[in-house]
Amino acid sequence: MKEKIDFSQPLVVLAPLAGYTDLPFRQVVKKFGADLTISEMISSNALVYKSEKTLKMVEKSPSEDPYFVQIAGNKPELIRDAVEILNDIDGIDGIDLNCGCPAPKVFNHGSGSNLLGDLKKLEEILSTVKKYNKKRYTTAKVRLGVNDKIPVEIGKVVEACGVDFVSVHGRTRAGKYKAPVDYDAIKAMKEAINIPVIANGDIKDYEKAKEVLKYTNANGVMIGRGAIGKPWVFYQLKHGIEDISNEKKKEIILEHYDAVIDFHGEHGAKMFRKLLHSYSKGYTGANEFRDIINRVADVKIMRDMIENFF
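The structure assignment produced for this chain is given below.
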């Protein structure tokens, strides 16, 4: 069987990002160059209780291949049930365990980056995913620790659970999204274990992605916040190009808009406002443009405005 994920070239992955990496956005980055897309973080609780909203979040676009679903949780039996539900959904190629989310509501619940403070617990939860997962891949996304950096210890525990690869965000939980990313720690994890390591954290553009790959010797990069408002970074990495034309940017923005309307219906126009705030950064007249679109809810008018502005 031909592997869907090939590490002969660095893998370029879209990070799961709550509120952003929904189906339309993933479909767009997939089309323009991402090797792998991952769902927004799904609470194993919500999945087990069959929340409608959660099941919609798991849906994927036909073009997303390979596609992973990321789950969070801290109770082995809930994690097992969540994995079994995902096993019955076609089109999912892997299950990723979130061991990195710093958000207080996730952390205080014992999930996400909380697991990094109790490596026995991390091992128990991740081994549960591995044991019940019938999909081809099991992976984990981690940070460097809760308060102290222990990348090597974390890497070894994750590897011992039998995962296929690990993505590491180069900050501790305490570092949230502000502390400088420690690429040395990512490099240390990479050197200490034998499974592929994907580097994540502040990879904002083509240059930075190249630099991080070279410095850490990682097997790929995962880009999350750096792709909001600039999803063409995947296109640049895929094609090895530094400069991207405004025409290409406009094509990608319109493609994203159409995908959002397609998936979310008329309400999508309002949802797209926050994305246009990001897309318009650095353009002349961006402030006026934002003021106007904040009042537009009509799908067609909004599209015309995007056409004219970009």
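Interim note for the steering committee: The first strand starts at residue 11 and ends at 14. The radius of gyration is 19 Å.
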